[in-house]
Specification:
Oligomer: heterodimer
Distance between the termini of chain B: 51 Å
Order of helices and strands of chain B: HHH
Strand content of chain B: under 5%
Distance between the termini of chain A: 35 Å
Radius of gyration of chain A: 22 Å
Number of strands of chain A: 2
Order of helices and strands of chain A: HHHEEHHHHHHHHHHHHHHHHH
Largest sheet of chain A: 2 strands, antiparallel
Strand order of the largest sheet of chain A: 1-2
Number of helices of chain A: 20
Largest sheet of chain B: none
Shape of chain A: globular
Helix content of chain A: over 70%
CATH class of chain B: Mainly Alpha
Helix content of chain B: over 70%
Number of domains of chain B: 1
Structural class of chain B: mainly alpha
Number of strands of chain B: 0
Structural class of chain A: mainly alpha
CATH topology of chain B: Helix Hairpins
């Protein structure tokens, strides 16, 4: 007990407040939004959105203030601010702003629980921001739960809608199940090494029991596979995305999924890199299944959100390819694979959120989520059609959008690591995926419209989509923008 | 007592939980089965913690976090189940099939 008190006392004195400033700002914003909502009259509830946006911008400022301040380790080694953490904190905050823009009119017009929604969304975002810095098992667990639990509630926010209820239940059951499986793996890792810090686990792994570690890694990967909706653990994702409010679907498919990937990458690269032989085959199998099954089912979708859900599953597969390339000792190719995964996640977040934004914009007023209704959108709303086409082209991985580089980098990393099978499967899948993305583009540009009136897009959404598309084009023209960041994020 | 007793108990509890998740149709019972799995994790953590002696405080702290988060999850989960029951008059997970493929 004395020891415990000493340890706690020692860490309490050594908190680096600047290092955790982004989290503090975001947490404070969430509390302010929740309290402010109590006092706002019904027709001013929407003010929670600008308030949240200001908070996220403040968080971004805190993140920027940490750039160039070197690596900081605080909270007894459980919390690290390095290039990787800063990059993903930034990505999460930018995605958070995009999601706010998508949510604004949806929740304001629908008069759902706006204050509660923005509070929950900020909490979930906080989970992602914490996850980027989490360097021990407890913090990773808390971060992933902080991302998920508000997500369960957000998915069921349309209380009267049976589909939304069903979405929430499915997401909840799979989410909690995956946490339990992941925790079991973590408890075995703790048992094998006696350490909770990832660095400590890595240092003691050599002396640890081999079967216990294999089992532990297996459970942890399965647990995370649910979170990142990798096949065969993907069943919940399309149903949850379709049933929940569309901005929430955008949130789950970007921030929540990238949060899961960040946790997985941190665990695999900080705790288990020396036993990569045990987990590489699991990731290779998951990657092949996820890409292929995701794309095959996406081919026959008629609902744009479900199409994006299945295509998002397939996109997870490409990131898993990068994780399946890691070999103990092969530093150069490992670094390349790591960077390609980081770049893919950052670009994926922006283009997927953009595509969801366009889908929400189209469905707003009497529009629909069915792909057949997109025919002739070019004649009705040329700007919206062009933007959506841009995002879909980026998701398909064709120039002139950033998605092209994302796929190319993963592909090159696979070649570099001499995993030709994965490279071939990935190439084939990119072709299949291009088919269904371009089918939507073709519908918008080369088919006749049944309706003539233009689709009205609110200004917030227009600005958000425009900026996202501009960012994607800029990265395509000048890929150093992201490769530079990825290089600095190497562990 | 040797630590393997506790690990076997925990593994059995985890397996019962997995079976319950797969076999039960009532959403509340599925939730309870998941709780069994989480408690298997707690047994593991506390057993390892005792095994490591004074070095192993971390395991107990982790177990406390798991208990707290599990409570939060149950709160949210039961709320969702009640909502579902109000709208559909059933909590059978096999009937949750408005959306497929």
């Amino acid at each position: 007990m004395m020891e415990l008190a000493q340890q706690v006392g020692a860490t309490a004195a050594a908190v680096d407040w600047h290092a955790i400033a982004p989290e503090l700002v975001l947490a404070a914003t969430a509390c302010i939004v929740l309290v402010a909502d109590l006092f706002l009259p019904d027709d001013a509830k929407w003010l929670a959105m600008p308030l949240s946006a200001a908070g996220i911008i403040g968080t971004l400022a805190a993140i920027v203030s940490l750039i160039g301040a070197g690596n900081r380790l605080t909270l007894a080694g459980a919390f690290e601010v390095d290039g990787f953490a800063l990059l993903f904190k930034g990505v999460f905050c930018v995605l958070g702003l995009l999601i706010l823009a998508i949510s604004f009119h949806y929740f304001r017009v629908g008069r759902y629980y706006q204050g509660e929604y923005y509070f929950l969304m900020l909490c979930s975002l906080l989970g992602g921001v914490v996850m980027s810095s989490a360097r021990d098992l407890v913090t990773i667990f808390i971060a992933i739960e902080l991302i998920s639990i508000p997500g369960f509630i957000m998915a069921g926010l349309r209380k009267g809608d049976a589909k939304s209820n069903e979405a929430a239940l499915k997401f909840f059951l799979f989410g909690v199940l995956s946490s339990a499986v992941m925790l079991y793996g973590m408890s075995l890792a703790y048992g094998a090494t006696g350490e909770l810090l990832l660095e400590g686990i890595r240092a003691k792994l050599t002396a640890a029991d081999e079967p216990l570690i294999v089992l532990s890694v297996f459970f942890i990967v399965v647990g995370f596979a649910f979170k990142i909706s990798a096949v065969p653990f993907h069943f919940w994702a399309p149903d949850t995305y379709e049933g929940s409010p569309s901005p929430v679907a955008a949130f789950l498919s970007t921030i929540s999924k990238i949060g899961g990937f960040v946790g997985l990458i941190v665990l695999m690269f900080r705790a288990f890199p020396d036993v990569a032989d045990t987990w590489r085959p699991i990731f290779a199998l998951l990657a092949i299944l996820t890409m292929t099954v995701g794309n095959m089912i996406a081919l026959r979708q008629t609902h744009i959100i479900r199409l994006l859900a299945y295509s998002g599953i397939a996109q997870s597969g490409y990131v898993l390819v990068a994780l399946a390339l890691i070999e103990p000792g092969a530093t150069a190719s490992n670094e390349q694979a790591f960077q390609s995964a980081v770049i893919y996640l950052a670009i994926y977040g922006i283009m997927d959120a953009g595509a969801f934004a366009a889908a929400v914009a189209f469905a707003r007023r009497g529009g629909s989520y069915f792909i057949e209704d997109y025919s002739g959108l070019w004649q009705r709303s040329p700007v919206l059609a062009t933007l959506l086409a841009g995002f879909l082209i980026s998701l398909a991985g064709t120039p002139p959008m950033a998605g092209f580089w994302a796929k190319v980098f993963v592909f090159l990393a696979a070649i570099e690591a001499q995993s030709y099978l994965l490279a071939i499967v990935m190439g084939l899948n990119a072709v299949v995926a291009a088919w269904y993305y371009l089918a939507v583009v073709k519908k918008m540009f080369f088919e006749k419209a049944e309706l003539a009136e233009p689709v009205e897009v609110p200004a917030v959404l227009r600005v958000a989509m425009g900026l996202a598309a501009a960012a994607l084009v800029a990265v395509f023209v000048y890929p150093r923008l992201v490769t530079e960041l990825a290089e600095r994020s190497l562990f | 007592m040797p630590i393997s007793y506790f690990l076997v108990l925990s593994a059995l509890l985890f397996s019962v939980g997995v079976y319950g998740v797969l076999a039960r149709q009532n959403a509340v019972l599925v939730l309870l089965s998941i709780e069994l799995m989480l408690n298997a994790v707690n047994i593991n953590l506390v057993a390892f913690s005792a095994f490591f002696g004074s070095e192993g405080v971390g395991g107990q702290v982790f177990a406390l976090f798991v208990i707290a988060v599990a409570a939060a999850e149950v709160g949210v989960g039961l709320a969702i189940v009640i909502l579902l029951f109000r709208n559909r008059q059933t909590v059978d997970v096999d009937e949750m099939s408005y959306m497929k493929w």
